Amino acid sequence: MRCIGFDVAKGLAICLVVVFHSLQGVAKIPSASETISLTSYYFSLWLMPVFFIISAVLSVNSIKGVNSSVYKKGSELLYIYVLWSLIIYLVRLLFDSITNTNMEIDEILYILWDPLPTIWFVYALLLSYLFTWVLRNVNGTLVIFGAFLLSVFNYYTEFFSGTIMDRFCWIYIFYVIGYFYSDTIIDFFNRKGYLVLTFLTFLTLSISLFYLGEGFFPFFLFPFISLVLAFSFIRICFFLTAFIHHKVLDLLTFLGVISLYIYLTHFPLPAASRVVLGKIGFTNELLMVLAPMMVAVLIGFVCYKLVRFRIVKAMFSFKEAVAIFKSSR
User: Fold this and answer.
1) Which residue spans traverse the membrane (predicted)?
2) pTM for the structure as a whole
């Protein structure tokens, strides 16, 4: 059964993820304002934690279920990661003049330990799912504390720098919190009270991060800051489901439903749209950030509509790919 509140949160968050990636690109322009860098830094703190918390809450039954469900989920994530890494790699290699990237042929092997920037989420999600399945019967508080220590250790030692484990060490704590405290989290999101406090907390912390700038807070506080922002954002999204116009709600819910399509396809065309705008003289920062988001949503929508065709569906579903393979034999 789908949860509209989670769909709304995913719908808004996936749009902000595309905005975040656009901000990263615009920030590389010498004339880019400091606001661009600060906004990019701000989004980097809590957008992915939102997805990992939601993914963990929605994966509880799968992780606690029979081994076949774990195999199904794991193989699905692995398939999507490998296939879309190949797709993104080939597109970047063939159209590097448009996407503004430099790729070598042998770099495809790097996906085994160092994923492409736009697909690392899937690899980290796969590792989070499998690690949590292994640790599912361990005391939750102990696992969360261990994940926190791992994050701090890797930050100060850079032990896993240049590998997927670098990202995993940062993000895993949010997944295990979502898994071990899923019932409490759902209850918190559905509560009617404390909305004003939640909104003020989100607003105050957001303004503080912009005002104080990057590097003000010590790293060991970041997991807590990210957690508060992510929880507050999701809580506000749950509130919106009861008050916004039904057409807006339907749109946000739909964006949440197609969030995977948007995420997987938001490179390279959306990124290329920003590059093209710059080359033809449109250097307005807001336009260069919002245009890729609109292109990404459009492409995600088209892919969602095209999954009625088996070959397209197989690009997003391991089960469908296996079915096509078996039927062709």
Assistant:
1) 41-58, 78-95, 115-135, 142-158, 164-182, 194-213, 219-241, 248-266, 286-307
2) 0.93
